What we know:
Elements: H1 5-22, E1 29-30, H2 46-67, E2 72-78, E3 81-88, H3 91-102, E4 109-112, E5 115-116, H4 122-141, E6 150-155, E7 158-165, H5 167-178, E8 185-192, H6 195-202
Parallel strand pairs: 1-2, 3-4, 3-5, 7-8
Antiparallel strand pairs: 2-3, 6-7
Helix pairs in contact: 1-4, 2-3
Amino acid sequence: MKRNRTSILLPALAAAVLAGALSGCAPLVVGGAAVGAMVTFDRRTSGAQLEDETIELRAGSRMRDAMGDRAHVNLASYNRQVLLTGEVPNEQAKQTAEQVVAKVDNVKGVVNDLAVMPNTTLAQRSNDTLITGKVKASLVDAKDLAVGAFKVVTERSTVYLMGRVTQREAERATQMTRTISGVQKVVRVFEIISDQELQRLSVQPAAAPAAAPTTPPAAAPAAAPASAAR
């Protein structure tokens, strides 16, 4: 009997993201849970991906300097838009966190969804990590969605979906995520693109022609071997 891909992938995904969460218990967590072994097509340019990584590192460092261990702040940057989730002790700390991130080079926007409340427990964060794993496994299993187009962050059972997607993809991913066990709410932080833009992104560039030799060969071979033709 052919097993559903979700039933196969979910345990591995959940274990991977849970291991990442438990490996560090610092108050500040940079970025969402990731599955390193999964290589997928990212709709961001390579430059944007590098900028997002740099933004997360710089903002994380500055946040630690500003907040210390008084807050639990998650930073996730996608196409230079930064999502802030987690818990801070008061409204002033919430505004300070946003100001710190907004001053980082190349940040074009900040979505501040920090909650003024006590920090969540390790058990709560572990549950969030498992939910993230379930969402990613469902995205992998969906035949009409590209998992590489999405970034998933979960905070207190609320799932935040980021990415460059079409309106259809946004609706499909949202509805699918809402049906996953443990998800209480879905927040969309999407950059909506047109179907034409998606088609353009999906087109692979043609291979560049081989460069002509700058000098003629000393002697022409009698016949080129078949394996040499590419």
